[in-house]
Amino acid sequence: MSDSHLSELAQRLVIGHKRDGRSIYDEGAKHELVMACLEPGASLAKIARACSVNANQLASWVRQHERSVAQSTPPSGEIVEAQAPNFVPVRIEHPELATAEPVVNLQARLPNGVVLDLRGCDLDQACSVIEALGRLRCSASTKG
């Protein structure tokens, strides 16, 4: 999100103040701000600073949004594209795999330093792990 768009959003965000001094926020602008935080590579702290919002408050709004999305997720376990935009479908077309059960070796390095190493798991297990990893929040400073 561009700096000019952030400054325009900051102007629309606060629509008033309560008697105790707390701000009253425009719901549409608040939603735009949360969506900006969910973009790949977005820095929540930078966006909060640019819009004069406490970073903890903005993080709370993002968590509320993620909870509401998780509650509206279909129970069938189907991936909703908006939840995992960084993953693309992979089609496996190999003559040997047409008759045999595919075996997958999967390794993932998590931002906290944990390395997940699954060898010889089946395709359903690998898909379940990838879906779960796709739901994790990751800050821009840990991407790379």
How would you explain this protein's 3D organization?
- With 144 residues, the protein is of the alpha+beta class.
- It folds into two domains: 3-71, Arc Repressor Mutant, subunit A; 95-142, no CATH class.
- 40% of the residues lie in helices and 15% in strands.
- It has five helices and four strands; from the N terminus they run H-E-E-H-H-H-E-E-H.
- A two-stranded antiparallel ribbon has the order 1-2. The chain has a two-stranded antiparallel ribbon with strand order 3-4.
- Strand 1 and strand 2 form a beta hairpin.
- The chain is elongated.
- The model has no long low-confidence stretch (mean pLDDT 78).
Give me a quick take on this structure:
With 144 residues, this protein is of the alpha+beta class. The chain contains five helices and four strands. The protein folds into two domains: 3-71, Arc Repressor Mutant, subunit A, CATH 1.10.10; 95-142, no CATH class.
Secondary-structure map with pairings?
Blueprint: H1 3-13, E1 14-17, E2 23-25, H2 27-37, H3 44-50, H4 55-71, E3 103-109, E4 115-122, H5 123-134
Antiparallel strand pairs: 1-2, 3-4
Q: Key terms for this structure?
A:
Arc Repressor Mutant, subunit A, 144 residues, 2 domains, two-stranded antiparallel sheet, alpha+beta, two-stranded antiparallel ribbon
Instruction: Sketch the major β-sheet.
Output: 2 strands, antiparallel
> Percent of residues in helical segments?
40-55%
- Enumerate the spans where pLDDT stays under 50 for 5 or more consecutive residues: none
Q: Order of strands side by side in the largest beta sheet?
A: 1-2
